[in-house]
Write a structure and sequence with these properties.
The complex is a heterodimer of chains A (351) and B (643). Chain A has 351 residues and is mainly alpha-helical. Chain A contains 14 helices and no strands. In chain A, helix 3 packs antiparallel against helix 4. The mean pLDDT of chain A is 86. Chain B is built from 21 helices and 27 strands. In chain B, a hairpin with a 2-residue loop joins strand 20 and strand 21. The chains are: A mainly alpha (351), B alpha/beta (643).
Chain lengths: 351, 643
């Protein structure tokens, strides 16, 4: 396929860089050292999430890319996105999907650190075949070099994006009010830039939309959806409570989009860079829509167990830690019978 | 609705609720911000049976009237349980009852046994006792209070009943079985906004019909925060309703409300408009004090929400529809509205999540719905809460209809109306002068929709009558229809809109009829005006009495420390004059004869129990009497002052 347009001009790249900075700053501003401690205190959920994020998601990406017969650059981008850590967007969606925000934050925190080790390994495992294709086509056009995944560059760009995160955390410690503003602004800026990129891509390179094979669209949309689906049922299979199930599902499907932009811009060059950026834009756009839809669905489905969880938790808050809420017979769904607070309150456990 | 318990009388409701909800908390009593004491359904019922047996032992007969004077506390609810379970009816009134009213009520209702909440009330009743030969027993509710000789404590009576029941006393159970649907459960004396106290007779079937017909989907995970006076019919219907689905009522108070909302995270709440105004004020203050970026974000969010919701209301046909709208206009506008809805949707989605959710969290974040009743909710407050996503369901009713006549539901939320009449309730709009039926009447287009007149109603919630006052009862009913005395109109989406109270209508000497409430609500939008009352009966023009907002004046740089100093300050007067001119101008939709020509600032605040009813409605006759000289002065000077 012909795909040799320069997708981003220098000023777009600058804009993207600012967006990444602001969003990562906002992410840091929403984190506290306590969130890191929480990971260690309650490792089970985070571990299941870890398996789902770094076990299932890259595999889904690889499978989709292979099945849909992706052009190699797109395939590498999809696998790269599949191996990313989670971002703060998932925390917000989890909140509205009536999931456990605490777990979502813990997973974001843990996966951001773990990505430093996991991403190079995962890319090595899954991208081999596709890099060989690129190398072959490069050699066919007379270039002597082999195409290899720039592992060290990826690690250093990951470390680079952690700088604003650390700055955000620092701001949070020092000036709480500012931190809240930074959080809100970050989300808003993110949407604005994505829309700007889409709009410019549309006006400048309208043909891009037509040139992109339909399979690529399916892959960009399907990655997130499959992540939600498998995250949901995988954790269900392991007997996770609905509250955490929804958090794991959303955290699995929603990846940290801005990080993918940073890595692609800093570690890859043409001829693959533009294609990879294009896929990242497509993923980031569609994931907002699909996760909104999924969130609304979870919100509706989760109403019952959320109401029970909330009521039970508030009883413990106001009536004392030892208070046990006794719901009438037949009211509690089977999964919550042994613990209506869904594992958040030891006193509510009954066998 | 399937979670609701439906029974024939309230005693059976209490019994069934205890059976079904057992150990779940029915009530929670606040001890400190994060320390509340739960009382379970079964224990409340047990204690209620004990008390009922104690009351029977004391000589309370079925269908007796038992006094119950006091305000919100658990022992009040327990007393109500005791009275219902002994087959009697209670006669409630708050602590702010005057001695005259106290005497009148005890005497008129023929009360032999009465509960009093506090030592103070106890002493007042004791003082009146010599003039009340029928009054035999006084029972003190407050466990910490000191009982005078001859006064029993609530606990004594419960213990007495418990001992009797332990020996096999089943008299309470027999009484429960003997309650007829037509028996009174309460006899509420209202002074309302006009006249002397009237005893409203409400039956078990009245209240039971409300439980059956109120719209709403609740279950036993619901938390209800209670701030209204406990004896008021509006609070009582919410309480009974809550018992019917197994929710827990948390007793809060005005002073701790903000904190309690965040800690209890209520899912349901009922209150008078005044509370929503206060809450609105506090939210706006919070926003004004926040970071400038956040202020901008809020304004963007509110702007988007407004457009989003208005399109939604249009598309779902849930907007205030006062006139008939031809189908083709609707068809023409629909695509435009849908387009606006689609354009705004993603932006609204984001700002709703990021900004408006924080506002909602200030009210606990879990509110599924709130009900406003007991007075008209100012339209800007109504819109504000509905736009930010806290659904306010305004309802309409009166003590005489126990009390709900109509209420908006989540699925039928037309801002600006009080919703459609609840099931089994018929509403008529009557021309007040001629008595002609305006709605429903096929003589008029659309069967009389949008015709204005007095509201008459018929339904299972309508009272039996006024106690020992057949003459008044007869005047209030007309051929089985209850005349509410309120003016209203049925909108084109079949919701009731209240236009005012026909009794408060001001007739100017020119013959023009003016409804003062809309003007007053408009004026109260000014930050400088705390309260106000429009006057001008039989005069050439309208004037207004203003209670200025001292705090606001001080915040805008005024040095005055007292109301007395403020009302004579010419600058302050100038500001008020300007506010009145601005708010009630003809460009704001007020007619020429609705213009306010003059005003006086009052150096006092209207207070509950004096100038205001418990639900913060102005008692017009009280204000008129009290500030008679001010009103006279307003109109005798003749010339319009320009200071």
């Amino acid at each position: 396929m012909e795909f040799n347009t320069q997708l981003l001009y220098a000023h777009d790249q600058a804009l993207l860089a600012i967006m990444i900075f602001v969003i990562m700053l906002g992410m840091g501003a929403s984190l506290t050292p306590d969130d890191f401690r929480a990971v260690i205190r309650k490792p089970r959920g985070v571990f299941i999430g870890f398996l789902s994020q770094f076990g299932l998601m890259p595999l889904i990406a690889f499978t989709l890319a292979t099945l849909l017969n992706f052009p190699p650059a797109f395939a590498i981008a999809l696998i790269l996105i599949g191996s990313l850590p989670g971002g703060t967007t998932s925390n917000m969606f989890t909140y509205f999907a009536r999931g456990s925000v605490a777990l979502s934050i813990s997973m974001t925190t843990a996966s951001t650190i773990m990505a430093l080790f996991m991403m190079p390994i995962l890319l090595k495992i899954y991208t081999g075949g596709f890099t060989a294709q690129i190398s072959a086509s490069m050699q066919a056009t007379g270039t002597e070099a082999d195409f290899i995944i720039p592992t060290m560059n990826i690690i250093s760009s990951l470390i680079l994006v952690l700088v604003p995160v650390a700055m955000g955390m620092f701001i949070r410690q020092k000036w709480r009010d500012w931190a809240k503003t930074a959080e809100d602004t970050a989300g808003f800026v993110g949407i604005l830039v994505i829309l700007y990129l889409l709009l410019t891509a549309f006006t400048r390179h309208g043909h891009l939309f037509l040139q992109t094979p339909i399979g690529v669209y399916i892959g960009a949309i399907g990655l997130g959806l499959a992540g939600f689906f498998f995250g949901y049922w995988f954790s269900r299979l392991l007997g996770v409570y609905p509250l955490f199930q929804r958090a794991i599902s959303l955290e699995t499907g929603i990846q940290n989009g801005p990080v993918s932009f940073a890595i692609i811009l800093l570690s890859f060059s043409e001829p693959v860079q533009s294609q990879m950026i294009w896929l990242a834009i497509l993923y980031s756009t569609f994931i907002v829509i699909t996760s909104s839809v999924i969130t609304l669905r979870y919100r509706k489905n989760g109403k019952r167990d959320w109401d029970i969880y909330k009521n039970t938790a508030i009883h413990n808050r106001l009536f004392g830690e030892d208070y046990v809420t006794q719901y009438p017979k037949g009211f509690l769904p089977k999964r919550l019978l042994s613990d209506p607070s869904q594992g958040t309150q030891p006193s509510q456990k009954r066998f | 609705m399937k979670h609701r318990i439906k029974t024939e009388n309230l005693a059976l409701l209490y019994q069934k609720a205890a059976e079904r909800f057992g150990d779940l908390p029915a009530f929670a009593i606040r001890e400190s911000a994060l320390e509340w004491k739960p009382v379970s359904y079964s224990s409340l019922y047990e204690q209620g049976l004990n008390l009922a047996t104690g009351l029977i032992e004391l000589g309370v007969k079925a269908r007796d009237h038992v006094g119950l004077f006091g305000d919100n506390r658990f022992e009040w609810m327990l007393s109500d349980y005791g009275v219902q379970l002994s087959g009697a009816a209670d006669v409630p009134r708050g602590r702010d009852v005057t001695d005259d009213e106290l005497f009148y009520i005890i005497d008129h209702a023929g009360i032999e046994v009465t509960f009093v909440e506090t030592e103070e009330l106890q002493n007042r009743v004791l003082k009146l006792r010599s003039r009340l030969p029928a009054l035999r027993e006084i029972i003190l509710l407050d466990p910490k209070a000191q009982a005078q000789p001859g006064v029993k404590k609530l606990q004594e009576l419960c213990d007495l009943g418990a001992a009797l029941r332990a020996k096999g006393d089943k008299r309470a159970e027999k009484r429960i079985a003997g309650i007829k649907p037509d028996d009174l459960f309460t006899l509420i004396y209202t002074s309302g906004t006009t006249g002397t106290p009237k005893g409203v007779m409400l039956t078990h079937s009245n209240m039971v019909s409300q439980i059956r017909n109120l719209p709403g989907y609740h279950n036993c995970t619901d938390r209800v925060l209670s701030v209204l006076p406990i004896w008021h019919i509006f609070e009582r219907v919410i309480e009974m309703y809550t018992l019917s689905f197994g929710g827990c009522t948390f007793y809060s108070s005005i002073s701790t409300l903000g904190e309690d909302m965040r800690n209890v995270e209520p899912t349901f709440m009922a209150s008078a408009p005044r509370l929503w105004e206060k809450l609105h004020e506090r939210i706006i203050k919070g926003i004004k004090a926040s970071h400038p970026v956040r202020q901008i974000l809020f304004h963007i969010a509110y702007f988007l929400a407004k457009h989003y919701k208005n399109s939604e209301y249009f598309i779902t046909d849930k907007y205030l529809k006062m006139k008939h709208q031809p189908k083709w206009i609707h068809a023409l506008l629909l695509p435009l509205q849908v387009l606006r809805w689609i354009i705004v949707l993603p932006w609204y989605g984001f700002f709703n999540a990021a900004v408006l959710e924080r506002i909602r969290l200030g009210a606990g974040g879990s509110l599924k719905a709130t009900i406003s009743g007991g007075g008209a909710l100012p339209i800007h407050i109504d819109k504000f809460f509905n736009y930010v996503g806290i659904p306010v369901l305004e309802g309409y009713g009166m003590t005489e209809t126990s009390p709900v006549i109509s209420v908006r539901s989540i699925n039928n939320l037309v801002v600006g109306t009080v919703g459609p009449p609840i099931p089994e309730t018929e509403v008529r709009i009557i021309e007040p002068e001629t008595g002609e039926v305006l709605y429903p009447n096929n003589k008029f287009p659309d069967d009389g929709l949008s015709q204005r007149g007095e509201i008459w109603i018929k339904g299972p919630q309508v009272m039996k009558g006024y106690y020992k006052n057949p003459e008044l009862t007869q005047r209030t009913f007309n051929d089985g229809w209850l005349r509410t005395g309120d003016l209203g109109v049925i909108t084109h989406n079949h919701c009731l809109k209240i236009l005012g109270r026909s009794k408060s209508t001001i007739v100017l000497s020119s013959g023009e009829n003016v409804e003062p409430e809309p003007i007053e609500m408009r004026l109260q939008q000014s930050q400088f005006i705390d309260q106000c009352m429009v006057v001008g009966q039989d005069k050439k023009y309208l004037s207004v009495l203003i209670v200025p907002g001292l705090q606001e004046f001080r915040m805008s740089g005024f040095k005055e420390r007292t109301m007395e100093e403020l009302v004579v300050n010419p600058e302050a007067n100038k500001i008020i004059r300007e506010e009145i001119r601005k708010l009630t101008s003809q460009s704001n939709g007020f007619k020429r004869y609705e213009q306010i020509k003059d005003f006086r600032m009052l150096p006092v605040t209207f207070e509950v129990g004096k100038e205001l009813t418990n639900l913060y409605k102005i008692k017009r006759h009280v204000v008129e009497k009290k500030f008679n000289h001010v009103i006279d002065e307003l109109f005798t000077n003749g010339a319009i002052k320009n200071n």
